[in-house]
Automatic annotation (TrEMBL):
Residues 351-370 are annotated as: Disordered. InterPro entries: Kinase-like_dom_sf, Prot_kinase_dom, Ser/Thr_kinase_AS, SRPK. This is non-specific serine/threonine protein kinase. It comes from Clathrus columnatus. One of its GO terms (biological process) is spliceosomal complex assembly. PROSITE patterns: PROTEIN_KINASE_DOM, PROTEIN_KINASE_ST.
């Protein structure tokens, strides 16, 4: 069943599931198709991939399920790796994180947990039909090998991912145009539904409640946003546990999280653990706490050590505060995604990334985020109450006309005009930014095509 029209697209991206992922989808242990359908039914979500069609394809080893979406450029992980130091400028990191947060707002409003936020799953917007056809004419697809299976030969095509139109050293005024898509819902699940019995997400990015097999909800996505932000700024994972004699890697990772956050897990989280006796004694204290070899080093201290010279003291303080708010050890202390979208650190995400001069120059001791539940700037900020019942595929084809609604910050909502560039629909007070945005995109494209 085609959910959306093909009229406006000549090329599509096909995600071909492995045999194992296809079986998981059939047996209900994977909810990827359900999530894609739910997102497609809410066409106004501009920072998530939209499903155009899905079907089963017979392969030499069995049946594979295939999802068709719009085409995108390469992932943020590859982009970060292109920087000589592996680190990205704060004027690049802020719009990327802001887009991820807005994509999460859409998912969480559907009561869906992404559960696998990492730089590999964040894709840059584009390319359009013109970009694709120009690239095919310049560098046609080619075969780089042959796979022989059961006597039959299959060609192996050379990988040719599209790169964004800017590089790792892009200027701040161009970085304002960065738009990324939060993709890959293979690990996603409904917040009010059954939770996965296996480990959730990449090991180094797992939230503490995930490690001890306690209740996991939307809060694990907030934790991952904090880890992602640190990675993009420093070029390394924040949590890289060492091998400690007589300790498992899970125990070592927990000790490291205790040292970085300076917090301990509350008794209610400990009591939720399905393997409580493995990690905690009768009083709820971590059994291996005396084996902690990690120095007590705050996020601010780590950022200062890793980014000294790249970031000013004000930038380090502001970034540390944002990351620390995401990485509260107890889930209930973390902000919701809507509250995170109002965080002062993201205020200038699409305005060059400069940190506000009114921000304090010292990082406070860990306390619940001070920005929680501020007075909304716009009455049209996405509300947190879009809780859907179990998904039923829509009986109609959604309109292709994008919903235009004012947003506190610029938000990609559709495509318009012959230049086929994303439009950012803004409040009247942001009209100047909107105008500059279109001018920057036009300049980028003209420079790219002439160069």
């Amino acid at each position: 069943m085609a959910l959306l029209s093909f009229e406006d697209h000549k090329y599509f991206a096909a995600k071909i599931l492995s045999l194992g992922a296809t079986e998981s989808l059939k047996h209900g242990s994977s909810h990827e198709l359900e999530v894609l359908n739910a997102v497609a039914a809410r066409r106004r979500f501009g920072l998530l991939p939209i499903l155009y069609d899905h079907f089963a394809q017979e392969g030499p080893c069995g049946v594979h399920y295939v999802f068709l979406t719009a085409t995108f450029c390469s992932d943020v992980s590859t982009f970060r790796a292109s920087a000589p130091t592996g680190r990205l400028g704060i004027h690049i990191v802020k719009p990327i994180v802001a887009c991820v947060v807005e994509g999460l707002q859409a998912l969480h409003s559907l009561n869906i947990v992404h559960a696998d936020i990492k730089s590999d799953n964040i894709l840059f917007l584009g390319p359009d039909t013109t970009d694709i056809e120009e690239e095919i004419a310049r560098d046609p697809p080619s075969v780089e090998g042959v796979l022989t299976l059961d006597g039959t030969q299959y060609p192996i095509l050379r990988s040719q991912p599209f790169q964004p139109l800017f590089s790792w050293d892009v200027a701040p005024h161009i970085a304002e145009t960065i738009t990324v898509i939060l993709s890959d819902f293979g690990a996603a699940f409904r917040a009010d539904g059954p939770k996965p019995f296996t480990d959730i997400g990449v090991f180094a990015l797992r939230a503490p409640e995930n490690i001890i097999r306690a209740e996991c909800g939307k809060e694990i996505d907030i934790w991952a946003v904090g880890c992602l932000t640190y990675e993009l700024l420093t070029g390394e994972n924040l949590f890289q546990p060492q091998t400690i004699p007589n300790l498992t890697l899970d125990e070592s990772l927990l000790l490291l999280q205790f040292s970085v956050t300076g917090e301990i897990l509350s008794k209610d989280v400990v009591n939720q653990s399905r393997v409580r006796d493995k990690f905690f004694n009768r009083e709820g204290r971590f059994i291996q706490s005396r084996a902690n070899i990690y120095p007590s080093q705050s996020i601010k201290e780590r950022l200062t050590e890793r980014c000294n010279g790249d970031l000013t003291e004000r930038q380090i303080n502001a970034a540390a505060r944002f990351i620390s708010d995401c990485l509260r050890l107890n889930p209930r202390d973390r902000p919701t995604v809507d509250e995170l979208g109002l965080h002062p650190w993201l205020e200038t995400a699409f305005r060059g990334g400069t940190d506000l001069s009114t921000e304090p120059t010292t990082t406070p001791t860990p306390v619940p985020p001070s920005f929680i539940r501020p007075t909304p700037i716009s009455p049209t900020v996405i509300p947190p109450a879009f809780i859907l019942p179990p998904f039923v595929p829509p009986p109609f084809v959604p309109s292709l006309e994008p919903t235009r609604e004012g947003r506190r910050r610029c938000t990609t909502v559709g495509f318009e005009g012959l230049d086929r560039v994303p439009i950012r629909q803004c409040d009247e007070e942001d009209a100047e930014i909107h105008s500059r945005y279109r001018s920057y995109i036009t300049t980028i494209r003209s420079m790219s095509k002439s160069g």
